[in-house]
Amino acid sequence: MEATLHRTPLYARHVGLGARMVPFAGYEMPVQYEGVIPEHKAVRADAGAFDVSHMGEFHVDGPTAQAFLQSMLSNDIDKLADGEAQYTLLTNESGGIVDDLIAYRLAHGQFYLVVNASNRAAVYGWLKEREPHGCEVRDASDEYGLVAVQGPRALERLVLPDARAFTHAMGELDGIEVMVARTGYTGEQGVELCCAEDETAVLWDAILARGVTPCGLGARDTLRLEVCYPLHGNDITPATDAISAGLGWACALDTDFTGVETLRRIKADGSARKLVPFVMEERAVPRQGMPIEGGGEVTSGTHSPMLDQGIGMGYVPAGSSAPGYELTIDVRGKPRRARIVKKPIYRKGE
Amino acid sequence: MAAESYPDDLKYHPEHDWARIDGHDATLGVTWFAQDALGELVHYEAPGVGSTVTKDESYGEVESVKAVSDIVAPLSGEVLEVNQKAVEEPESINDDPYGEGWLIRIRMSDPGEIDALMDADAYRAHVAEQ
Lengths: 350, 130
Description:
heterodimer; A: alpha+beta; Gyrase A, domain 2; Elongation Factor Tu (Ef-tu), domain 3; six-stranded mixed β-sheet; six-stranded antiparallel β-sheet; 8 helices; about 20% helix; B: alpha+beta; CATH 2.40.50.100; globular
């Protein structure tokens, strides 16, 4: 198994920094360097860098590319101008989520998708199978390196101007050509930098030389959960629909895409269960798969470094899904109290 | 976090637990190796005072951000005291696993069990094989 694991262009850098490496989505990835908690706090207070080169990058080009993506993805891609991007979902016939991704419009008829590493093959297969004439889907994942730099001082440390979220532009950092995208997975201001695969290590060195803290997958998970960003495979799957997951805002139900009729019906009838964020009221760390009393389940759980208490998300019956509602979570046989809160779980200044 | 160490005055269990013997009583905790493997601890689920722990069986749990692990009793006995500092500040287990980060104190029910535990040299060799 280990022999078949891939490595990102930054593998040697991670090992050199003393990272603890773990298998993730077929890659050997750093789970932490110094520790999850200091890395998490560095991103909330200053700036942290994440190797996300394992993620999948696809080019979708051609005169029919836009219409094709409009028919495959939940959000309204017709709303994108050149240099803009949007969070969107690749849906199946039953309204389930094959993957959540960011779609970038590079130019007329030229789109770029960044998908979850664990779904790279599934998304590629899905799109390739349905690719129409006049459109080419190309998996360019191995051609690029991707580094996220996130935190309130990320732009200052990289000497980048402020820009609107979900926009992108070509730029350079210490002579390295990069696509600078105003996106991220931490709830902080920041960028995701895409460069040529063979320049990733130089880019990484340039970022760290500016005082940015290297951060692993451990902090990436705690950061995203504090701000209630769903993780595909945990909180959203091909068997969960966008409306129940609270992702209706990313679904343009007035457009035609796979599964839209199902989603319209769920929206009209109301979903039977809803994905809700919660905070533990007793000392305990919720984990994926733990039952919630009354017919629910934890889909993500961790210890919040900022709140210093257990936090999570899970599906509960819609009738008992309002903020303030008390939950009882079965923590390895012990009932532990939690309370549903509003999104996000952690907000700056609280 | 503390530097790697395995004090000579302790007895060790292969599941990475230590015991400090004091007459009929023993203080128990997890080793440097165990806390390092788990990472920064955020929760210690302790047994109740007066409950019984059994050698080679779990008496509690320690959790890091990423993982949970059973704590295995190196010796059997009755729980006399739980380290509330470790409950309130689990990071003290990382910072000082043999001192401020001790977990419970027990009255041994079978001091003969001590003979089955490893000394520091044997445990260091055990860790080197991990």
